[in-house]
TrEMBL record, chains A, C:
<dbReference type="InterPro" id="IPR000192">
    <property type="entry name" value="Aminotrans_V_dom"/>
</dbReference>
<dbReference type="GO" id="GO:0030170">
    <property type="term" value="F:pyridoxal phosphate binding"/>
</dbReference>
<dbReference type="GO" id="GO:0006534">
    <property type="term" value="P:cysteine metabolic process"/>
</dbReference>
<keyword id="KW-0808">Transferase</keyword>
<dbReference type="InterPro" id="IPR015424">
    <property type="entry name" value="PyrdxlP-dep_Trfase"/>
</dbReference>
<feature type="domain" description="Aminotransferase class V">
    <location>
        <begin position="36"/>
        <end position="405"/>
    </location>
</feature>
<dbReference type="InterPro" id="IPR015421">
    <property type="entry name" value="PyrdxlP-dep_Trfase_major"/>
</dbReference>
<dbReference type="GO" id="GO:0031071">
    <property type="term" value="F:cysteine desulfurase activity"/>
</dbReference>
<keyword id="KW-0663">Pyridoxal phosphate</keyword>
UniProtKB/TrEMBL annotation, chains B, D:
<dbReference type="GO" id="GO:0051536">
    <property type="term" value="F:iron-sulfur cluster binding"/>
</dbReference>
<dbReference type="Pfam" id="PF01592">
    <property type="entry name" value="NifU_N"/>
</dbReference>
<dbReference type="GO" id="GO:0005506">
    <property type="term" value="F:iron ion binding"/>
</dbReference>
<feature type="domain" description="NIF system FeS cluster assembly NifU N-terminal">
    <location>
        <begin position="7"/>
        <end position="94"/>
    </location>
</feature>
<dbReference type="GO" id="GO:0016226">
    <property type="term" value="P:iron-sulfur cluster assembly"/>
</dbReference>
<dbReference type="InterPro" id="IPR002871">
    <property type="entry name" value="NIF_FeS_clus_asmbl_NifU_N"/>
</dbReference>
<protein>
    <submittedName>
        <fullName>NifU family SUF system FeS assembly protein</fullName>
    </submittedName>
</protein>
């Protein structure tokens, strides 16, 4: 027994070492100290597999896609479109045509707000939650102000879970057309019960959009098992490049939606009087897409799959448990968000030391955490704080880094009180 | 932990126990500065004398230690100064935080020079100063 | 004299050799032949300086920007924002705040069509030309269909120049709010007289947008000298990465425009009832931007500036003259577009050999050209063709490549007739 | 110039002087296929006999050599064939252009096998066939 445990610990440490070796940036120094990067929820670092895929594309196999009748363009088109298949498999989509490439989650949600939103009538309701990132709030506010749909908000409970009773009440008048809710909060770490939300939404005649920007990094997404209608993810948090995100939606919904941006590649025929649209997904991809970044995203997904969500999930769960314990021991530290199902994003305050001071003093020691409202101002109001500090974990995060964070926080506190 | 030259005693002390905070009874002027991105807010109340010198200055600051200490050290420093000298101090402080080298005569305000290695925090130290300059300019315009 | 000419020819050949050495892809083989890449107008190849800048960012200095209070984020923010200064200088903008980063030209034009377009009233007119790329046509059609503004079209003359008399007539009723015209046609190579167009537009009370996607690659742009109101460029044609483009607009116009996409980074404060917007340019940059690609664009612009537009312009002019002559000698070949001021984009037909067959047969010999409607279907109707073949040049194109193109075309023709 | 195996004599000849082009007098069926992206268009007219076999087929093709030759070779090949055989030929042609290896019995249609190295042109060769299959299916549905 004992031997087995030691062996499996060594395994974990060994594979963590191998993973870390794939991320060149982790050997950088900051203020003369080893970089301890605990801001992966804002944007993850990139493995060499992603860096190389992008560089190799530019070095050996690049041309504009879809219209080229020559070798380089055909190969680049294939590489680009192959990522659509990869993303479809990654999300459990029924068909590759359901995958629309966007710049990021923000653009994906704006696409839905503009295009699906244009089909809504005044009096219909878009229902969000109190813990949304601005990306899943501001587009709906803008839609409201443009068209007169109503924006309704479902509160969170004191421990940071979605208030499911309130959700039911909010759905009860049958006017809700779309429920748009995060699958994992970037502030509280809360993971919402997406399937239950989808069932409630559908029973009330509403469609449902999940903001999977955070969740898809840590757990396997299966849009069909969730019975989702829309799902969005963003490449740079998935160890991929910036400039690439994904909107998934059911084929029949995408078919019914008008295009968002106009230009090349999204048309079927064009005359001055009238243009007709290409079929999905191209209808929603106007202009030269982020070709190199899409290929980089493909490399990132392949990298994630090579580790596997079993290992990723186990690592994250172990880290989160460890971190909640280690941080819980720091005097005056208060973790914000204690929902039963939660992931590796931990917000906290420490007595009345301002989160900005915490972040700067951690940075002096090489530790990168985020401090502020985390693009979730309304949630901050609900929580009665103006800002929090936040540590968040990636596949390369180690328990030792978390211990160092906790020890440094204890010292910082000693500094202030 | 790395010995810290930014959070020096003077900064921590002034943040913890400010000497010039609170309202100013019968103040002639009010000023306010805020940074919506981080929630920092500074409220100023002041009197100026006939020569335009700051005769009294009080601040109410909600924010981080850098911002709070900066407001308090500012309040201490500008009282009794000519407007030109206030502008000079402001400019010198900008130089200090941008370059890390404090111009002569900056005194305790040179505590903020290490901010040049924490550029995202420069605005915390400068917020009280922007509020002050704006308040004084508004007064001139009237 | 003789000696000097030889010396300067050697100079040119030498610097061309050095430039080509910067583009790793140019040593690739296609169908066993050396790659001859003559499709730079669709998308240009990337120099190692761009590839390295992106890879180095991901390897040594990456984090999400604007909100991070730690070293990595501050450095990445600085690198990102430094490119805004670079672009401002590149376009001759008065202020860095006038530079908005977008995915590409297409998104930049759509941004204007949505945001500036929302300020237009039914009865007002958007005026385009007959030679627009779909990117500068479809967004205005969609605006027309959404809001009831009128879309008006200025024809081109038989040689492919903009019909300036017709432009004057189209402006004469004073209802035109925006003139949106290409600065260089991606089909005809025609360079329009942007300053004259701006003067006419302004005299008629209209604003003017130039689609500089093609022009900015070959000639120095100075938005102030042109007296433009909007100007758009796209990174991937400028030897930069995909996923990054630029909208320039006058500060006061940007200030007056409502935001386009909603989300993080574009707000000042958010509450459920009401949000307020950040100042320009951030108001228009919602969500995590294409950070790595923006840094890549910076490297591309630095590369272009290191060669200089004098050299770039001279090279392009020499190549174009040479190509018009060499192609003119091919039996049955007809160049489409013979405007007096034209750049290195040459469309042609060859007897009734279909352009697709031309492209495939050239590809068998390693030569990449484009064939089709070039995202300019209405122009094809005007020209009475359903497709053309198109060769286009970059800073790495050699006269020998053009000679090889001409010789191969002659052989292809022999094949068919 | 590279010796070319795609633009073989048969392809060039049939593109230049098609044998089965033009209208079919008294045709029972009409079909059409087009690719808006490249402007290729094929119009078909046909008669079928009581067994559902193609009794006569004519095409009018506007497009590239690959598309025109494909239409003409198709018209020659499918006349007199059982519907199942037509489907088989279609499937074999798909195999040929996807893999570069022509299944046995494809005959002159194997001229298109080199398209596997020019994937963007596969749709040019397949356009007449898609139009044919669609026309025959539409007829069955009636
Ligand atoms: C004249 C012109 N305008 C606009 C575009 C669209 O550029 P992008 O696809 O990068 O948005 C192009 C490129 O195809 C172009 O040539
Ligand atoms: C929950 C959530 N939604 C949306 C976003 C927006 O992602 P992006 O900035 O990549 O569009 C984020 C990231 O900040 C997030 O955490």
């Amino acid at each position: 027994m004992m031997d087995q445990t030691v062996a499996s610990r060594t395994d974990v440490a060994g594979s963590l070492r191998r993973i870390r070796a794939d991320f060149p940036i982790l050997s950088q120094k900051v203020h003369g100290r080893d970089l301890v990067f605990l801001d992966s929820a804002a944007s993850a670092q990139k493995p060499r597999q992603v860096i190389d895929a992008m560089a190799d594309t530019m070095r050996t196999q690049y041309a504009n896609i879809h219209r080229g009748l020559y070798w380089m363009s055909e190969r680049t088109t294939e590489a680009y479109e192959a990522v659509r298949d990869q993303v479809a498999a990654f999300l459990g989509a029924s068909a590759r045509e359901e995958i629309v490439f966007t710049r990021n989650s923000t653009e994906a949600i704006n696409l839905v707000a503009h295009s699906f939103g244009s089909l809504l009538k005044p009096g219909q309701v878009v229902l969000v939650s109190e813990m949304e990132h601005h990306a899943n709030l501001v587009p709906w506010q803008m839609l409201r102000d443009r068209t007169g749909v109503e924006l309704r908000v479902t509160p969170v409970t004191d421990d940071g879970a979605l208030d499911m009773d309130a959700l039911a009440r909010n759905l009860s008048d049958g006017r809700v057309a779309l429920v748009a809710i995060t699958h994992m909060s970037n502030v509280l770490g809360t993971i919402t019960d997406a399937r239950a939300i989808a069932d409630m939404a559908h029973a009330a005649g509403a469609k449902v959009l999940f903001d999977g920007s955070q969740l898809a990094v840590h757990r396997r997404v299966d849009v069909r098992a969730l019975d989702a209608d829309f799902y969005v993810v963003t490449g740079h948090k998935l160890y991929g490049p910036t400039g690439i995100g994904v909107l998934w939606a059911r084929r029949e919904i995408l078919d019914a939606m008008p295009p968002f941006l106009g230009g090349g590649d999204m048309i079927s025929t064009v005359s001055f009087e009238r243009s007709t649209w290409a079929s999905v997904p191209h209808k929603f991809e106007a202009g030269t897409p982020a070709i190199i970044e899409t290929i980089g995203l493909g490399a990132a997904l392949a990298y994630i799959e090579s580790i596997g969500f079993d290992a990723i999930g186990a690592h994250e769960e172990a880290l989160t448990t460890h971190a909640l314990q280690a941080l819980g021991n720091v005097s005056g530290l208060k973790v914000i968000g204690t929902a039963p199902d939660r992931g590796g994003v931990i917000s906290f305050t420490m007595d009345d030391v301002h989160p900005h001071d915490i972040a700067t003093l951690l940075d002096r020691n090489g530790i990168a955490v985020r401090a502020g409202h985390h693009c979730a101002e309304p949630l901050m109001h609900r929580l009665g704080v103006s800002a929090t500090a936040r540590a968040s974990f990636g596949i390369y995060t180690t328990p030792e880094e978390i211990d160092f964070l906790a020890a440094t926080l204890e010292q910082i506190r000693g500094f202030f009180v | 932990m790395t010995q810290d030259d930014l959070y020096r005693t003077v900064v921590l002390e002034r943040a913890r126990t400010p000497r010039y905070s609170g309202p100013l009874a019968g103040a002639q002027m009010q000023g306010e500065g805020s940074n919506p991105l981080c929630g920092d807010r500074v409220r100023l109340q002041a009197n100026v004398d006939v020569q335009g010198r700051v005769a009294a200055l009080r601040h109410e600051t909600r924010g981080c230690a850098i911002c709070a200490a900066s407001a308090d050290l500012m309040a201490e420093r500008v009282v009794g100064q000519e407007p030109a000298r206030v502008s000079q101090l402001h400019a010198d402080l900008v130089t200090a935080v941008e370059t890390g080298i404090a111009p002569e005569g900056l005194g305790e305000l040179s505590a903020f020079a290490p901010l040049h290695r924490h550029r995202s925090r420069i605005r915390c130290a400068m917020l009280p100063w922007s509020a002050l300059i704006e308040m004084l300019n508004d007064d001139k315009d009237r």
